[in-house]
Amino acid sequence: MLPGGLDIRYLNVSIFRLPVRLFITKFGSMKTQKLGTALFLIMLLAFISAPIVASEHVVDLTGDTAEVKEVEVTSRGLAYDVEEIRVNLGDTVRVTYINGGGRHDWVIDEFEGAQTAIISGGRRETIEFVADQAGEFEFYCSVPGHRQAGMFGRFIVVE
Ligand SMILES: [Cu+2]
Hints:
Elements: H1 8-26, H2 30-53, E1 58-60, E2 68-76, E3 79-80, E4 84-88, E5 92-99, E6 124-130, E7 135-140, E8 152-158
Parallel strand pairs: 1-4, 2-5, 4-8
Antiparallel strand pairs: 2-3, 5-6, 7-8
The chain binds copper (II) ion.
């Protein structure tokens, strides 16, 4: 997903389809048609592989045996570099939020203490909380408009 909820796959379709169609219709000879087909296949491959290239950054701590589960989350612009964090029910989780620029925080509503202050770019803050309920939650930036712009991720507590 891109900021604003735009899916990169749909973006690729619209970017690639039009030039391919123009290319194929503009040049009618066999040679260019073959070239057009090859070009189309190359672009189709790019379209198919795009979701793999843009794979999510998941931090899975469910197999981590440390007493405190530690994770670093950095933001660049209006996005965190981590899209999903997985822990076990009852885990003590230590999150270090590193602000890559702008004014942001890192918050989960459902867990006590799962909230940094709003900090400036270049600063970091470490918080600790207990993941005392199972389920899928969302971490996000509470600065108005940022969550809507894509500054959020999943926090999954496995029972
Ligand atoms: Cu923010």
